[in-house]
Amino acid sequence: MQSHTHTPAAIFGNQCRYVIPLFQRPYVWTRDDQWAPLWDDVRTLAERVLEAPPGYGAAPVPPHFLGAIVLDQQLVPAGFLTVRHVVDGQQRLTTLQLLLDAAQDVTERYGNMLDAERLKMLVLNQPQVTQHPDEVFKVWPTDRDQAAFRAAMDNSTAMPAELVDSRISQARAFFVDRITEWCEPTGDPDKAAARLSALAQALHAHLKLVVIDLEPGDNAQVIFETLNHRGAPLLAADLVKNLLFQRAQAEQLDVGAIYSQHWAPLDTDYWRELTAQGRLYRPRIDVFLNYWLTMKLLREVPSDRIFIDFRDHVATAPVALPGLMAELASDAAVFSTLDALPASSVPGRFYYRVIQALDTRAVMPVLLWLLRWPGDQLPVEQRDKALNAIESWLVRRTLARLTGKNINQTILELLKALERPGPASAGDRTEQFLAEQRSDARLWPDDDLVRRSLESGPVYTALLRARLRMVLEALEDDLRTDYGEGQPAPRRLTVEHILPQAWRQNWPIASDDVSASLDRDRLVHVLGNLTLVSGRLNPALSNRPWTKDDGAGKRDYLLEHSSLKLNAKVIKEHPTAWSDDDIRARTAALTERLLALWPRPSTPEPIPVSASAFDPQVGGAEPDDEDDVAAPSHTGKYQRLWRWLRAQEGDRIELAFEQVEQILDVPLPRSARVHLTHWYGYEGTALGRAIRDAGWRASGVDLVEQRLTFVRADAETEEA
Description:
Radius of gyration: 35 Å
Shape: flat
Strand order of the largest sheet: 1-6-3-4-2-5
Number of helices: 33
Oligomer: single chain
């Protein structure tokens, strides 16, 4: 590459075009962060020019450096304008053009025509040397900004209403206002003209940029990453976009068509809005890419490695670039619809309860995976079964007050268990995977564990308010039958204690025993004493007694003002009193309804594998090939495993790698411990062929834990 320092006159003075490739990010500079500081610098420079003594021998006005730009010269036929692609610095070049055009416009109105013409030469090419009307512009932005840029640079017409709010339009208007205010055109005309002349000279000759021209063979993508990925405020998605389209250009693909079909929908303000990811707020498109990469790579992707891991994935992806981008765009479309999912649908309910209320965003990769498949590959009933299983697993763990740590690791293992066999039986596999978990950190709590936790557990103080509210909303929705109006429970209601926390004021107990009071203090926070009311009704209920002779008791207020089924049931069943025993009874009843709302399947009995079963001479009778004429024979060093698998009677067998080695009586090759393809690559590995020929498949191979599951092939077909 070659590096030179140039003034705007040297950069824009010739008939040339600086084209910003469509895969670059749109114009994102703002007034406070960039426009105002730039104008302050330029104004100061113009005032120094204005104050500089005339004549030779005077100290020159020191230049002001604007930074660096990186350009990649394009091959064009003779007679055409010189064209350079802007590899880096497009924000700076675009802003400089808007500033130059604003100065030219104001100077044409209030200054000398010679100064105006000198500035005009820096923003427009001569029409007679162009092939297309847009080629008059020396800088040409990305697709998204072209209409606004074209209108902004046309000084003869007003900005269309639909483009007024664009950053391009706002930037030019800002510079016009500041230049006009600075030159004071309503005062002395000569003074205004002198100021504008100094401004034109400053813009023309006293600004400096470092221009880096790439030479043939220079890798534009590597230079772009080096300049921007370490510290510059680029989104990870900006780097990803640049990488993808640099490759598309290098592969001589139709970049414009690929952009329009796959990336244009991602170049909107919606995708650059900040959204929550844990305790941080990050651009929505970066959050999506984080989840998408986790789903694809089946491992955690730190937020600061999104681009690096994406780049590595692109380098090894088994699909061509257009296919990869189509897949990415399709999954992004799915992600963008999550907030608009129907509340009555299983995915919509899952998104509200798990992602929003439980705030368990670690499950987003598996949610994205389940929603990405069309119905002919993942039946709706299997998709919903998987979502219901995950929701039940998480809600039951919440109700049982089990740890929420390391959920992301469980989700990653679930994704691995789903990815290999494909989506057709995802619901069955999800349910089975979660039901088989045994450790405290992964357990799917059974009914007894949830009952014990809720029986006397202070859910009001133990659960975050959003989580508790969601549980009560689910109970309310469950009471709303098909005979009703079909409306779900209102959101954002408040949690109310039926027996108030300050119960001593109006809810005395017969016994003076201190322990009885302590028991009631604990009882006040259990599930059976909680309900939902509106934010306005909550303070009105306060510490009122259950009933009052004047009709102003808590029951009376609920009867008159609440339309919730939860409250109607309590009102109907307790016309005169609300006692400690009523709280216990309601807790038990609500618990049973919660267990029905979020069911858990019975735990399947694991296939017993005794120590002696690892000896092929003891592990079962020799398979009778005469009774199974379709079974292929097998020879080779993995024949012992083939024989052992043929002798097994179950459909699923979980083994450690060491146990497989006991069966083989030889160590596994190192590649089997570090490469999944050694187990799954049936056409390329002897081990894979032995498993296949025995009528089994390797599933859920975990290279970290060094374990796997053998699944009988015909059983898997029936299951699918």
